Request: fold
Amino acid sequence: MQRWPVLLFLAWACFLFFSGIGLFTSGFLLMRIELTNRSSCSDPLAAPAWAGQGVTSRACWMPQRVPKAVLLIIDALTFEFARFDPAKARPRPYENKLGFLHQLAGSQPRHARLYRFRADPPTTTMQRIKGITTGSLPTFIDVGSNFASYAIEEDNLLGQLVENGRRVVFMGDDTWDGLFPQKFFRSYFFPSFNVKDLHTVDDGILQHLYTTVDGGEWDLLIAHFLGVDHCGHKHGPDHPEMAKKLTQMNEMLRSLVDHLANDTLLVVAGDHGMTETGDHGGDSEKEVNAALFVYSKTPLFGAHLPEEPETIPQVNLVPTLALLLGVPIPYSNIGEVMAELFSGDGGTALAAFSQLSAYRINAGQVDRFLHSYSLAAQDLPAERLRYLRELFSAALEEHDRLLAQVREGLPASPEQEARLGRLVVRFQHYLREARAVCMESWARFHPLRMVAGCALIAASCLLCCVASELAAALDFSYRSRLLYPLLWGLAVAAVLGLAHLLTREGLDLILVVSWSAATSQLAFFWHSWGRRPRRAHLAGVQPPVANVGLWQRLRAWQGLVLPMGILFIRCCAMFSDSFVVAEARVAPFLLASLAVLLVGKLHWHGRLTAPEAPKQSPGAAFYQKESWQLLCLLAVLLACLRLSGLFHQCREEIPHCQPSPFLAPLSSLQSAQAKNLFYLLCVASLAGLVYAVRCWLQHYGNLNSASPLVLFVRWAFPLLAVWIACYWAVTSGAEDTLGKLQELVQVALVGFPQAVYGLASLGLLLVLWTPVTVFVKDSRESVGPIVTPYQGAPSSQADLQHVIPQIYRRMQESLKTQLDRGHRRATVAAYGLGSVYSAALVIVLTLLGLLLLTLHSERMSLAFLLLFLEGFVLLQIHAWVVSLAGDAEPFVVPWYAVTAWVFAATQFFYSTGHQPIFPAIHWHAAFVGFQEGHSTHLLPAVLVGANTFASHILFAVGCPLLLLWPFVCEVPNSQRRKLKKELREELQEKEEQPIMEMRLRESPERFSAALLQLGLKYLFVLGVQLLACVLAAMVLRRHLMVWKVFAPKFLFEALGFMVSSICLLLGIFLVMRVDCAVSAWFEQLQPR
Amino acid sequence: MKDTEIKRLLSANVVSVLSIILTTTVPPLFLENFSVLGTHLIWLCICSICVTTVNIILYIILKPNPSSKRISFAHKVTRFLKCCVFFFISCILFHGIIVLYGAPLIESVLETFLFAVLLSTFTTLHCLCMLGPNIQAWIRVFSKNGAMSIWDNSLQITTMCSIVGAWFGAFPIPLDWDRPWQIWPISCSLGATFGYVAGLIIAPLWIYWNRKQLTYKSR
Reply:
């Protein structure tokens, strides 16, 4: 049996998938590290005083220029909406509707101005709010300390205002509530989720807006209108509803301006634009092109009036507002101040100085941020950072020189003014360069990498499919199919590595890995193709009958239609956000359909009906007894599928969804009676699980020997269950009742889970060490001299008494051997040899199940019981179907079984209370057994990962059972309690066929090929789903829901794939280990 | 012989299709505010009753599986009662299967049950009319080589089409289109109806198309 090549081949296939995932991720998922540093007034960044600047009372970095500001965010206010073109004769519904802005800008050019406001992708509302308040470029994953909530942890404008004692009032979109919990002085949130609802949020705001403005209890008022955006999503921009909505906004602005005080700044901004269909999320011109309008009743701007509205990056609003309101700029801001707002109403010289100091502060802050960021992460290129550093220090030197001159009191000269202007330009240049560097690494998809990643994953799927077909053939050579591709891949990796070494460029690991993966794949296909023609040639010897050949080929593919069709439907479902959201119900639906169709197909082909129909009633058919059993199993499976729906977690996208009450820990239950009841239920399910496994092992005779593993199963399984039950008892108890025993409780809280971990790990090691659970009854006793030889006649009574029983025994012995020789020779009876592979897997699965169950909340044990039951039922159905179908090749696991197995894994991902969104991760799993927290990040990550992907782990490790189970169940005579495999001592007597799993051992080559094929099929089904996810994320990257639905789904699917494939390798490795041990056992048996 | 049989089948199926079309067009003349989507439950009842009557009438007129034996009246009555029991059991079974497939268990029980009744009308009732309350015959008909007449073939096709239609009808439910027909069980019952109608139309065509290949075992 070829063990290592099989494992290596599967590992190589996994590696191909991983490299594809890595490549796609590097192009799709923009990553950034969040810094938690905060700016404060005491930072040494405050502006040095220029001549003529008095320090006002509220000076922090820069004197406050605006005491109050109103920030109106009109969601999806595209620049086209805000622009007014009087020349247009027949405006579209969205054009020329905000006439009031135009009127203000036209009549008071020093008070009002309209800008193009360039949003940074991803143009989704939440990311944009983050951008407008923190001044940075939020990506999909902002790696921060807390994944569980969406709250902004970075330094931000609101935080700065609150810290400096300002009052921030908010009204509108309730996304802000999640982002800034407890930050607002007063707030009016309205639900934003229903995209079809155009008016709730806007009307709610209008109800409170004017009274709040008049009340005056605020320093910054934020109002976030959603109507325009929702109108875009519902009707698109080119619709009369949009005209109505924009007119409403226009009226709102008109009356708001009437209510504003003289010193209040009004900022109207769109957070992003929209495409022609009203969508947003991506980086197309229309999506990033929003509008910004600034107005105040006191003059803000200089006399200079630009011809065409300027383009302002969105992040620029943050430093501008911060400095205008007299608070520090948020730490991570990379925006640039809008200088013209700092000119004020003084002379030009004064204005220039004040602009310069704003730039100076801004540049200092950005430089500080870049420095801290480059210490925390390496994703900004070092040489660009060095260049930026140089720019900044040069500008700073120049600034200080100029400052010294001015301090000396030299009279203002044109030459000095020119230097001033040049310095401003230098600061500007620095800030823009810095922003560009950050943009490049944080805010841009890499379409090429995404496409290449997809192609790599697709090619890997194809490879799995092709290889699984080839593996069935006996001429599968690992040399050409595995060794050469691997060598090719390694060679390419080495060449690339050398090239990098020679050119001394930064080594991009992902690129190297993907190149080598792609090459090795190509080599595989090339070698496979190279072998093809010969076979075609051989086939060509016979006169080809094309028609028949095609028909037969179609016949051969017919069996694939069912599983592949269902798999195809599931893959299509990945492209719809609604289906991804509803996947928890879609997966069981498809699994149920698959199972029912499978049994229906058997019925259709007449496999379920008894072959000899009773003659008396023609036209009637009867079911065999086995068929009824199969139907019962099907009913149990359907019931399992339905019941597993009881354990679902909710997503916020599903309205009126109540999360399953079973997800809450027992300690949250109020009523003691209910708590006791549920506790008993949980313990019962635990005991049931352990008991069922014991029964199964007993039934197949794997519980008889005295090997350490069997002892472990006998004694440690109940012990584990008891410990888990104790742990539950301690955690679910009310905290105050055990007042005096508090310390003991703390010890128990740590001790029990850790003991469970320890014992379970010990068990896993034991399985690896001695996986054979076979009880040997050896009846080949060596017939030695039992009778002590005696000399002479018996001398005494005592001697006689001693000898007579000996003679009797001797006679008995010889009689027995004669009898034995008569009809059966001395035999070795090995109990449990027929299920030795499955037994080891079942033991490992149970151990893993108990381990994973500990990580979940107590009542999830019911879900785990259901999981084991469903797995068992699936295997039984599979075995029945194989035996009923009759014609199936025993060494080939059919596609439907693999597909159903993968679907069951997906289904139980949901039924163990998970959802593919970050807030639904069970973070508490990291603290099971580690109450104090962790010192490293690895262990909690492993615990949380094991909790999240529990079902993936269990089903992947159990995957080889699909191959083994039909062999285990094959004995038709199920009444036999003990199944034993009789091994003839004389090897030449081979007339007795090996039974059950020993049939696998009979042909080791086919066994290893079957394992390889099974693994490849499993990888293929997983890989196709992954491919669908990846394609969905790539194609729909402009979709409204991409960051809420598709991207998290992709992440969970990719992680699930990795976990599954590694566990699959482990499962197959375990089977190989058992095979080794069984071989050793046979050898040990031989010499005796 | 075969051609006349096919013609009879075609006419029977056309009558069935027309009856279903009538259930959507006639009731608004008598009932206020009736629409298939708005008052779906009423439509479900009307459709089930209408299809039942039409099927029974057609069965009485056409007698697809004429029995050679003379049957006593008492036997007929027990047969009829047995049919009723079978129909009721099949409604319950369908209800159970629909719930197992993910329909709500407690809420909208009435909707689910009426949908089950509709499905039974499309499938079980047909079987009862054609084959009588004889499970063995049912098992025989729904297997690969089990059809003994074109009526059996038609039965296979319409039954499968109805069930497949109902299955496909479940697909639009999760979508967030907010259409009135996405509410449970409208899409499924409409799917089943469309499937049934499609089956009725396809069956004679398919049989006509394959009339050369179709050979039936003698009874």
Residues 487 and 520 of chain A are 8 Å apart (CA to CA). The interface with chain B takes residues 196, 576-579, 581-582, 585-586, 588-589, 592-593, 603-606, 609, 617-623, 638-639, 641-642, 645 of chain A (CB under 8 Å).
